[in-house]
Amino acid sequence: DNNGEGGILALLALILQKQRRDADSLRRRIIIALGLIGAALLYGDGVITPAISVLSAVEGLEVVAPQSQHLVLPLTIAILAVLFFFQQHGTASVGKIFGPVMVIWFVAIGALGLREVMLAPQILVAANPWYGVQFFAHHGRAAFVLLGAVVLAVTGAEALYADMGHFGKRPIRLAWFLLVLPALLANYFGQGALILREPASSINPFYLLAPSALQFPLIVLATIAAIIASQALISGAFSLTQQSVQLGYSPRVQIIHTSHTDTGQIFVPEINRALGVGCILVVLMFRSSSALAAAYGIAVTGTMAITSILFYVLARTQWQWSIWRAGSLSGVFLIIDLAFFSANMLKIVQGGWVPLVIAAGVFTLMTTWQRGRLIVRNLLRDASIPLDVLLKDLSDENPDKRFRPARVPGTAVFLTSESKDAPLVLLHHLKHNKVLHENVVLLSIVSAQVPEVPITDRVEVTAFPHNFGRIKAKYGFMQTPNVPEILSLAAERGIVAKPTETTYYLGRENLIPTGTKPLAHWRKQLFIFMSRNARPATEFFGIPPNRVVELGAQMEF
Asked: The whole model's pTM is what?
């Protein structure tokens, strides 16, 4: 629980809170790599889950009206297209009906399953684990392969932790134990009971649980439930992207807040387009939920396994648990996760390669961006000078008057990284323009390893001679920085910058890839491409664009 937020990046941030001093250690790099792999797998899950959820729901038409089989794919694609199109409007207006609809859904499937269990109560002996042991003992490899299909019964569990920030721990626990789990168990037992009574119903036991008159309403309800479930994954992908940007694992993207009251309601157009196109493509590729199921389990079980590993690391480093205590708890889950993951790896050829390719692509983008930004920061630091040296040059004690530029009215705000050096953009400004504003503010925006930073702790102010000041603004990984807000808070602490008299100076590096290390040439080109297509700092940080001056610098990369 990272201050109310869940999800694999929130867990990673929680682990890294006490490891920032050991930034270059192999242990830290491995932990970050695991977290990013888990996040990348969740993007793969975000492509496959809406596709298989909607497709399997619409396939119920084949039970009610077999002659309508040709409509399944067009209807699925149409529903997905509408789903992603309306993301830009947010879910605040329709979110109020999500809860009641899902309650109706779980009550309905639970009642249908319970009805069938009452007709064939002998199915309840399946709860005896001895039958599972015997099944594995007698069927060996076939039983292991079957785990790849069984995992579909628990998919979605990985989203419970990720959605903790939206709903809270207590509501999730209550909903799971009082409604969702009983309804799912009743339905699965009911499907088994139906197959015991009527083996031919194994074609589609879920829809055949319902009487003929209720099958079409059940299809409609299942489709709505699939859309809501898909919405949860899509919203999770948006939140994951926001966390990734703030933690420095991906370039700036457009983040639109779709609600004036709920800061968690966001829309990320780039991710929405990618997920929408990806969902439609996998539907066209696999054409049925049974075929798509082969691609489903790897992303889910991989994320679960990595979460178990990161939990062990957290318990050992943050909570100071013993190896035995942390290992015994996380080990139980990890054994189960790895068993499911291994079984799903057997389905790579049948479709399991899809989430792996998506995850590999996302992981490459994340690590390239993270590594590239680190290299650029080091280059900027090497090209700069300590701030105290610059201030000394500007003082009256310096006999060389060439280093004392003319001061003009107003305030200049220079965005810089969190360091004690003078920003390179300030040095270029002095070199080329030979003037300096009366008031100079060096603004650093840093991301904390917590979801939100209280407004009382958001700004730290330091005053220097010659009307220089430094503002250090902290934002959580679920918050969006806003420069005018920062300056307003800084004014309460002594650094006053009038909006109409303030000029913002931003640096823009023109990177020239060279053949030297430490990054492969193709990754340098990829980093440059991402840098050029990242959202402008003015837009991302809420800086008034008509008061911005950009100074470029060419730099070998």
From this structure: 0.81
